[in-house]
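Handoff note, outgoing to incoming analyst
You'll be picking up this chain. Sequence as last confirmed:
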Amino acid sequence: GGTQKLQVVELAQISATDPQTIVITPYDGSIIGEIQKSILESNTGFNPIIDGTIIRISIPPLSEERRQQLVSLVHAKLEGGKVQIRQVRHEAMNDVKKQFNEKEISEDDLMHMEKEVQRITDDTISEIEALGKRKEEELMAI
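Most recent structure output, in case you need it:
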């Protein structure tokens, strides 16, 4: 055989039997040992165990420190999302004003469209904030 590097996902089906267990089922049973070896050498800290035709990996519970790091990451992603939403709002407002300035829409339409853009912006920000809060609660639950 060759020494081509492949990702596990290309060689096996990967599933989770529960939040703490990953099961890897190789498409070709003859490479199960190589998959186990590559996971052991990947410095993930995982200990893959061969169980017949599958590999089981138990995921250790997250430490308090790691949970806090992940919560910080959620907050950073949330802020990035809000910035992108505001950029889209800014572009939409500019488009609406341009249509008004070019006499394509009336002042009433302008006001209505600006309110609608703001409503959609507020709703979308509320939605991602709720998702972030839910994810934070999930991460901090022991």
